[in-house]
Amino acid sequence: MSKPNPVSGSPDKEPATEAQEARSEARATPSAPAADTERAVPATATKQPAAEGPRPTLGRLFLDNLWAANTVTVTVLAVLLAMLVGAVLIIVSDPEVLATYSYITARPADALNASWTVVSEAYANLFKGAIFDPDAVGFTAAMGPISETLTYTAPLVFTGLAVALAFRGGLFNIGAQGQATIGVILSAVAGFALPLPPGVHLLVALIAGALGGALWGFVPGILKARTGAHEVINTIMLNYVAVYFLSWIIIQAGVQNPNRSDAISKPVDSSAQLPRLLGDNLRVHAGILVAVLATWFIAWLLNRSTLGFELRAVGENPDAARTAGISVTKTYVLVMVISGLLAGLGGSNMVLGSTANALTPLVIAQIGFDGILVALLGRVKPWGVLLAALLFGALQAGGNRMQSYSGISLELVTVLQALIVIFIAAPALVKAIFQLRAARAARLQTSLAKGW
Amino acid sequence: MSTTAVPEVAVTTVDEGFWTRARKTGAVLLALGLLATGLFGALATGEQARFTLSETEGGAALEINGTVGAILFGIIAAAAGAALLAGLPKRWFTLVLGVGLVAFVLSFLCWQVSAAPEGRNFMPLVNIVRGTFILALPLIFGSLAGVLCERSGVVNVAIEGQLLMGAFSGALFGSITGSVWVGLVAAAIGGAFISLLLAVFAIRYLVDQVVMGIVLNLLAVGVTGFLYERLMQTDAQKYNSAPRFSNWEIPLLKDIPLIGPALFRGNIFLYLGLLLVLVIHIALFRTRWGLRTRSVGEHPTAADTLGVKVLRLRYRNVLMAGLVAGVGGASYTLALYSFTKNMIGGKGFIALAALIFGRWSPTGALLAALFFGFADQLATYLGAIGSSIPSQFLAMLPYLATILAVAGLVGRVRAPAADGKPYIKG
User: Fold this and answer.
1) B404 vs chain A: nearest CA distance in angstroms?
2) What is the mean pLDDT of residues A138-167?
3) Nearest residue to A343 via CA among A222, A239, A210
4) Which residue in A422, B81, B141, B403 has the most C-beta neighbors within 10 A?
5) Interface test with chain A among B152, B160, B214, B231, by most A beta carbons within 10 Å
6) Contact status of A422 with chain B (Cβ, < 8 Å)
7) What is chain B's alpha carbon radius of gyration, rounded to the nearest angstrom?
């Protein structure tokens, strides 16, 4: 945080108009339940403004930076804002709590107490389900929440990386969902149809998934390169083609589970399953290790390799890249292939890990669309994606507990995730609400818009 | 579309030499026609293929021998393809292509209907036409919402969310008040709420419009799903039992054979949808508002120079789009079904496809929506007669058609030039 050459006081001056809007917007936001949301924020996100530096100037500098619109501050505040809106949703959807608001002028304490109880209980359960439950006894119970979080994190890392990589190459890959779908199909089929020894079988199944995703990424890539057809449209369309293909192949003879009449495939052989890391009672599996490896590889690819350089050059400015002798068409195709490959691996994780072991119509859930959110939250940087996926995995794991213990629908997690990304995508809004200073170093990209 | 194309390769798609786009299309159509003649003709049976002008097996019908029909229509399709390949004048292109495609579909139907088991080898055209319109309705509203947004330069990927929010608030407020009209207004406002978010973030905060659309879809799924579980599932009687619009029969028109029972005995949404297509078409191409909207979508700087308030117009159009899509969502919950989680199920994205397929024009969007609706209805029908064609592949058809259209294989589609680009007054 501390930088040489400190400029004391406010580093940047705000234009007058923006400061004015900031005030009006700050007034508009209710601030009552802010305290209770604070408690449930994941521990990684807490930063106490009270921290004292060794010397006053340094401490002052730290505080200045803390309240500036840098990446960390905006992210933390975005999470807080999202939880605030979530709290409002919890309150208005609870008829009993809502009833206390009908006489709020007579006895305001009732309404506030009831709201506090329902919201704090929900978010406490979110925390306990995602990170640690103080009441847990024994290793398995204590590690349970973390294990769940990591299980949900692994596939999101892959799809998040897929979307982020494409973004860096100037392409918007909305098709991670479809690519993951094709990946999950090929992985599962390789997982139950090929009689191979353990180890080899797992490897083959993973490669099959990656290839499936790569193929599904290649199509929009080549169409973009050859005809200029916009990848956003084509990937959206291919998502649905993949969904229908999945629903068709599940019920084909040789794929469908012969003992079942509903749409479910044969289970994947145990030789093709990712090994569990912490014993059979905890769901966390080796997929998370592969995910970290993939993050490292993509970080290397982007920042250290020739291809990564070309990719970023094309993403920043295709015309300049072409002038410099980079083949834009080749780069577009390669970006989409690698992106699809990653998304395909994300799909593999859903059927080779502990989430499921057979194809069903909803086997990959929403990992492709969540991947878009993860990539944006991670500021389209590989390690950022990993952290963002961790947050989303935690929300998912905690949401499960919140649903079963507090009766709050899991959909609230979707709302929270979408809201977090909305606030992230519009840092100007967060800046205005909290009257943050403009950050000096961090450049927050607000727009990637290029049109159709 | 071409704005973001890679210039070095985009050049290759410009028509040059013998292989113009018309000739390429003709070659494809010729191949399809030959396929129909050979394959469909061989697979069809000698049974009569009956296309009844009613909802049942009885009544007046068009009949043709299955094999004869499949081969005959296949030859027509092939002939149309050959004509295009031979280099027909450009003004005939659309007509001949249309005839060829319709003939191909008819050849396919002759095969399917004649090969269906005894007792089911007829096609009730009234049902098909009516089903096509019903299935196309949310697409029509959705793609009109897209037209309003994108013609003024704001990409609307949030159609799905607007439809869903409309369906939800229509059901919720319709149930609470017990009035269809309150439900209808609430649905429009629900759609406009998503639009408002899209507008504020896209226009005021310059967030990427596609990103915003995707995120808003997820937000709508989350919020409606959450409130559905918390309110509607716990007390369906109170929160999820909206009254429904009854069907209105239009005197005289309802007695027209085939079209009458299919189109003029529908509910308010059907009439409203068709009316809106007409109104928006006229407004867009014949009024001052339309001219301004189009100029803002093509070249906002020029429009601004001439005194058009670019941002205000965009706000207004995006909000109007939300109103339209919201009503489209209500065409589910205030006419057909009660609300369920994520009930739009991708229709918003097909509407987006219809918008693109229809080249960003209201009438084009209507035709595309009807085509997609027909594909959907056909899938249902073929499932009912036990066809050998998997319904999933028919369901893929709209999406594949859109990919082909966007890739320029069926015809060039071009988005408004400033679509998706935020306007910063400088």
Assistant:
1) 9
2) 92
3) A210
4) B141
5) B214
6) yes
7) 23
Query: What is the spatial distance between Cα A444 and Cα A147, in angstroms, rounded to a whole number?
Result: 33
Residues B56 and B39: beta-carbon distance below 8 Å: no
DSSP letter for each residue of A77-117: HHHHHHHHHHHHHHHHT-HHHHHHGGGTTT-HHHHHHHHHH
Taking all residues of chain A, what is their mean pLDDT, rounded to a whole number? 83
Query: What's the average model confidence in pLDDT over B378-394?
Result: 83
Same domain, yes or no, for A360 and A250? yes
**B296-302 contacts, C-beta under 8 A, 24 or more apart:** B296/B152, B296/B153, B296/B418, B296/B423, B297/B150, B297/B151, B297/B152, B297/B153, B297/B416, B297/B417, B297/B418, B297/B419, B298/B153, B298/B416, B298/B417, B298/B418, B299/B417, B299/B418, B300/B153, B300/B418, B300/B421, B300/B423, B301/B423
Domain presence at residue A399 = no
Q: Give yes or no for A448 touching B (CB within 8 A).
A: yes
Task: Domain of residue A434: give its range.
Answer: 9-130+408-452
Whether A420 and A347 share a structural domain: no
Express each pLDDT in A8-47 by its tens digit. Answer: 333 343 343 444 444 444 444 444 444 343 344 444 444 4
Q: Does A232 touch chain B (CB under 8 A)?
A: yes
Q: What is the pLDDT of residue B211?
A: 87
Same domain flag for A124 and A159: no
A178 and A124 fall within a common domain:
no
pLDDT surpasses 70 at A170: yes
Select from B9, B203, B355 the residue whose CB has the most chain A CBs within 10 Å, as the one to mutate to test that interface: B9
Q: How far is A274 from chain B (nearest CA, A)?
A: 30
Same domain, A50 and A181: no
Q: How far apart are CA A111 and CA A99, in angstroms?
A: 8
Which residue has better confidence, A109 or A371? A371
A233 and A316 together in one domain: yes
A325 part of a folded domain: yes
| Interval B331-367: pLDDT, tens | 999 998 889 988 988 899 889 988 988 888 999 999 9
* Mean pLDDT on A191-200: 91
Q: Is residue A126 scored above 60 in pLDDT?
A: yes
With respect to residue A175, please indicate whether it lies within any of the assigned structural domains: yes
Task: Judge: domain B127-406, CATH 1.10.10.
Answer: no
Using CB atoms, pick whichever of A240, A332, A415 lies closest to residue B222.
Answer: A415
Contacts of A426 in chain B (CB under 8 A): 201, 205, 207
What is the nearest CA distance from A281 to chain B, expressed in angstroms?
31
Cβ contact, residue pair A425, B208, below 8 Å: yes
Reported confidence tier of residue A7, pLDDT bands at 50, 70, 90: very low
Q: Judge if A353 and A429 occupy the same domain.
A: no
DSSP state of A271: G
Q: Which of A33-47, A372-386, B69-83 has the lowest mean pLDDT?
A: A33-47
Tell me if chain A has a CB within 8 Å of the CB of B420: yes
Q: Dig out the tokens for A303 from the structure.
A: 């920042």
Is A298 contained in some domain?
yes
The closest of B296, B112, B6 to A327, measured between CA atoms, is B6
Confidence check: pLDDT of A275 > 50: yes
A361, A380, A399: which is the final residue of a domain?
Answer: A380
Percent of chain A whose pLDDT exceeds 70? 84
In whole angstroms, give the CA distance from residue B256 to residue A295. 65
State the count of interchain CB pairs (< 8 A) between A and B.
196
Residues A167 and A73 occupy one common structural domain: no
Residues 246-275 of A with CB under 8 A from B: 247-248
For residue A2, the distance in angstroms to the closest alpha carbon of chain B comes to 30
Domain parsing of chain B, residue ranges: 2-115, 127-406
Q: In total, how many domains does chain A have?
A: 2
Tell me the whole-structure pTM to 2 decimals. 0.84
Please report the pLDDT score of residue A8 as a whole number: 39
